[in-house]
Fold this protein.
Amino acid sequence: MYRVIAYDEPTDKAGYVIHDPVVGLAASEGKLTISSSQTNTLSLTLNQANKLFGKVRPMHTHVEVYDSDNSELLFRGRALKPEREMKSNGQFIQTYDFEDIDSYLIDSIQRYIEIANATPEEFLKKLIEEHNSQVPEYKQFTVRKVTVTNKKDDTLRKVDYQTTKDAIKKLLIDSIGGSIIVEYKDGKNYLDYLKSPGQDHSTEAPLKIAENMQSAKVAIDPSKVITRLVPLGAQIETQKPDEKNDDSSDDGTKLSGTMKAVNGDWGPAIKFAAKCMKTSVSDAEVTIIKDVIKHESNGSETIVNNWDSNAAAGTPSMGLLQFIEPTFKKYCLEGYTNIKVGFHQLLAMFNDSNWKSDVHTGGWGPTGSKRYDKLPVDIVPSGTGGGWGSPFPSAGHGTFSGGQLFGVHAGGEFRQNGFHDGLDFGTVDHPGSDIHAIHGMKITRIGYMAELGYFFVGHSDDGYNIDYQEAFASRSDIHVKVGQYVKTGQVVGERTTDHLHIGITKKDFDYALRYAFTNNGTWIDPEPLIFGKSKQTRSLNEKNFLSTKTDDSNSPLAKQELDIQAGIDMFNKAKAAHLEYAMDYRRADILTNQKHADCSSFVSFFVELAIHETDQTLYNTETLHGFLKNHGYLLHYEGTNKTLPAMQTGDVIIMGKKGQSAGAAGHTAVMKDADTVLECSTGWSGGYPDGADVFEHGKSSNPTLANWFSYDANNWSGEWYWYLYRFSGNIPEQDSGDQKGGTIKSGVRYTIAPVNDGKDYLDIPEFQKEFGIINGAVTWDNIKDPAQLLTKGKAWIKAQKASTNTFTVSAIELNEYERFKVYDRYLFINPYVAEQQLLTVISKEIDLNKPHKSTMTFGDKTTKLTDYQNDFKKVSKDVESLKSTMSTIDGDVSSMRAGTSSTELATISEQLGTVDVPQLKKDYEGTQKDIKNSKTRLDTAETDLKTVKQDDETTKQTLAEYQQTLAKYQQTIAGLDERLKKLEGGNADGGGV
């Protein structure tokens, strides 16, 4: 029996009973549905006599359902819209639907945020924390238990204005599995996220047809099967280059510089004024202008000449260059009109079209036309490097310890590779709480990363991604929004920790995160950008820093480009030295006199020269992979394709499968440019001794680049497999600018084609045999690496559901219906419906008035591809075994017929007496015919098994018939075999049977 209690408001402590057959209260109808995959629901139909009739308020009224036998709370939920009806007898009834309290999670919206490197528990708590901040206390949840632990490869999770329930489903349950379980207990709502809820009951008595379960219905749903998977990654971003929306572009229109004398020297200000006026000034001309200043004012910006004719006329000359007021007004620029500011006078001087001839000692005066009314550039505060500024302007440049500096320095040894990908501003060395924008940008991302806390990223029109992190103790400390434009110097947040980390890259930000501890040029030193070209003097104890790593900002790695000419020069020296191919110790000659080399020593040294690597180690085709990956190269392709893709300068080709390419089993070469490959090899014309065993194959060579590669691919000894590595500096920088700034998404997505022989799909042969080709796409929005996308696709195939089988049982047919719990797993045996298996209770439909009509569904038996393959192999093996047995029996009967003469049969007949041997022979003949017919039927069954799903009810019935027929034949054969044994025994000893 069940009891239902109603509450007019969710916060009411005392309710009233509206259904309890024990005390004579009953709803007209009531059905409670408890499900593992859907929200639990309760449907109640009430007549006018019920206390709740006419009182239900949607979203306010709550009900609870209890099991009367043990007072267990089965359901708590809120009312939805009621339905009203008048029956033919004039009685009014109302039907109400109630939804479980987990529906509270649809009452909140998650604001846009990105969270990286968070465990499922950390991520879930962030979502629930946001949910709780938006709803009243009775709708709030406490995260109690989380057993789902994998981080999904530290994937960045993006929440984009979804309901909390949708966010949990999409970013947790659908992504990494598990189940959300909610419970109302002691007036509070609890939420668990469990990897495998429920318990196994494998040791209890199993459910068996005709014993403790009368019948079961099976349903099969193969509609979601995919037999050809197309894995899709993130959308590829494209460029709209003509739009500029922030103040970041360093295109000559935003300048900063010195506008006053430096220790009495006006030279820097003169040069900067000329730059602002878009005119060139030589050092000799700067000297002349300084001489004029000395002659006219001796460097004073405010001095006034009150003794000459101009003074007598009422317009005394004044200031740095001794302009008179009317002349200054003619040449000064809007906004720079103060005659007693020296820099304003310098601008006015350069605004004279004849300034080069007009400025001289011994008296000067402008004679040319006015060049500009307004300054042709924007001047930003001095020291910001052209649109750049400090996040803490009042602190100036300040000082940084080695651990705070970008790159590899003493004090940063605790980091991986000793490398720091940004610049840290501490509260001691750079005091202040307000964080200012260091560059104009559009805010593109606000998120959270484990161990780093909240962060945000901006993208500038001139192509920089700027990361602000480790400064914000909470989300509220970030004062900008995604999509907002900010200008240099604008306050963007508040530092509430001990330091701010600034990271700058021109690469895609997600890509750059992969190289946070790798000095391959992905990250850029912020210090010279923020404070101008000069860095602080390094007064560090770097002599005590034992690491051999250096911070060479001019290296090809730092500049993200290869010095390919250095490698080409070595190639030319090898040609001139008549290099001879050698795989022994002489291969090291490539480092000195270029007399000898093999393919891998040549490529090793070529790349080392191109990246200015001083550690000249020679690698082979096995170890070259690791060297390239550690020195700015990325694996661009691997596979068996026999044609080259579009190539780029510096690309490295390695032929031979890794692990099998040592010695002569591998080869390698490097691209001189997009059309020409260089290699050290033998067998081509022009080699040693008359020429050299180094060759270049291009558009017009013999062979051409394409023919060279095709020859190796088609004549390879052993399995053909090759790799293409590309220098990361060749990876395009993030494009800039759309109609709102930043980038736009093209709609085109990353695919696996570059690492899957040009195919963007994965076939599933076992499924295609059964279901044919069914195309389907699965998208991973955060993945841009084709190799990673391929791995995800293969993993998805392994976990794909082949079909969903469910077994529905009614309560009247099942003993102890109440003891079965949703999510628990029970042993299920029904040879005519399915094999023995441990099935989950996935739903229960409880009829409150007629419990015997309640039903329960076992299943969501999610057959994975590997299970399906095993089932197929098992059936095939069983069929082959039956065929073998029948063949043996067939042979025995044939042998008997062929080897037993009429005389022998007559003798046997005499020995048997009344036994009719000829009839026995006919029985065997008939049995042989039946066996042949059965064999034909089994062959047909085998074909059917390949084309019909194993657990289709019709197929199961057919198989059952086959099994019954076989059992009958086997019983007949066993009887005949027994009679034959007796017969053979009698024939052997001459006795009767």
About this structure: The first strand starts at residue 2 and ends at 7. The longest helix spans residues 953-989.
